[in-house]
Amino acid sequence: MSDMFKVQIDxxxxxxxxxxxxxxxxxxxxxxxxxxxxxxxxxxxxYKEAKILDRIAEPERVMMFRVAWxxxxxxxxxxxxxxxxxxxxxxxxxxxxxxxxSVNLGILxxxxxxxxxxxxxxxxxxxxxKGGSDFDPKGKSTNEVMRFxxxxxxxxxxxxxxxxxxxAGDIGVGGREIGFMFGQxxxxxxxxxxxxTGKGIxxxxxxxxxxxxxxxxxxxxxxxxxxxxxxxxxKVAAISGSGNVAxxxxxxxxxLGGKVVTLSDSDGYIYDPDGIDExxxxxxxxxxxQKRGRISEYADKYKVTYVAGKRPWGVKCDIALPCAxxxxxxxxxxxxxxxxxxxxxxxxxxxxxxxxxxxxFLKSKIAFGPGKAANAGGVAxxxxxMSQNSMRLPWSKxxxxxxxxxxxxxxxxxxxxxxxxxxxxxxxxxxxNIGGFIKVADSMLAQGVI
Length: 450
Ligand code: NDP
Known about the structure:
Elements: H1 3-19, H2 24-43, H3 45-49, H4 52-56, E1 61-70, E2 76-87, E3 93-99, H5 105-121, E4 128-133, H6 142-156, E5 165-168, H7 175-189, H8 209-227, E6 236-239, H9 244-255, E7 259-265, E8 268-271, H10 278-290, H11 296-302, E9 305-308, E10 319-321, H12 331-339, E11 344-346, H13 355-364, E12 367-369, H14 371-374, H15 377-391, H16 397-419, H17 428-446
Parallel strand pairs: 3-4, 3-5, 6-7, 6-10, 10-11, 11-12
Antiparallel strand pairs: 1-2, 2-4, 7-8, 8-9
Helix pairs in contact: 1-2, 2-5, 2-17, 5-17, 6-7, 8-9, 8-15, 8-16, 9-10, 12-13, 15-16, 16-17
NADPH dihydro-nicotinamide-adenine-dinucleotide phosphate (NDP) is lined by residues 169-172, 174, 213, 241-246, 265-267, 323-325, 348-350, 375, 378.
């Protein structure tokens, strides 16, 4: 990159850091995008004159609110709730809700920012948003989770709606939490409407929505491998996390003939050299979704290795799908993966690779699919849920999976169009950033200075 661009990026980032102090994850996400976009914008001066990059990095609206609730002992608990309405140029705000003790404004702004580009890549009419709370569902009874969700939605309901802002799940928010929030929205507003996605199948949900992010990340991986003339069959996969995204990535990799040998949670990882098949996955689903237990119990049950306090990136694998959380692959981890022969990384999680790790992947010329492209299948299928809610007609499982597959193939094509470099190397980071940017930027230009 030329010195001129480096100076422009530094100046832009100095403004972002000054305006958003202490929000390191937000700085990280914006910088990665700015590195792709500033050279592109130089060649497309209409975006420069309209200050699109400065505008896109400023949320349209931020809500921050108190969520008070009463625990099972009768004690009052106070959490903080957020909703970031980042960009509505191409549709109503759309993006998940995260309940995790680490949640703060900077983390949600990074996620909302990524969401703008991701949603644009899906080709569906969805703007970008994100929200959540520092509430920790771990160790809480179902009644406590319900009381928290009801209190959270009592405030959130005034900011969301099917044509305004449509939240979904994310870390700590699955079908159970969506149900409690939907019930409270309906009670307050007296409307049965598609205000949330990820709903239960009997009350407006879409088939394949739970599977969508993990399946989509695997379809994206498949497309990246096709460019190299190979497939998933026979490949050994390391997957992190054991929640929604990890579970369905495991299922799809297995269905396509790959062997998943690791899963993890925040306490450690398991290594199963024989691979996680449907039966073992059913155990993981029961363990994580019903019993809400720890992944170490898998090692006890199947007599395999459990490594406490570590992530799975030291395990030899051909392909890696990080599906837990942000910054879970360090530079060292990335080097280990590459040295061990890993040829492709598809990010099921949002920003799981640090900037240094991304640098290692790009320099090594392995196929690296960044989250905003690779995990867009979740929000894409949320978009399909919104369509079904508007039509009041459900689509079959096959229909939704086929649509999801087509969307992922098209996202991959867009990344190739804008990310192709010398010797047919595809820089998916640049491809996703530019491919996601154009539609939003052109819509902002058309809608005037707002
Ligand atoms: P879940 O809550 O279902 O699962 C999260 C998993 O990641 C759990 O295994 C959890 O372990 C682990 N984890 C969470 N935080 C940490 C941490 N700080 N360190 C180590 N492990 C951690 O969430 P999802 O599967 O829905 O989300 C996973 C990732 O995918 C997130 O980055 C999310 O933003 C992204 N994503 C999700 C989408 C969706 O549709 N759900 C869509 C697009 C992206 P533990 O149980 O110990 O907390």
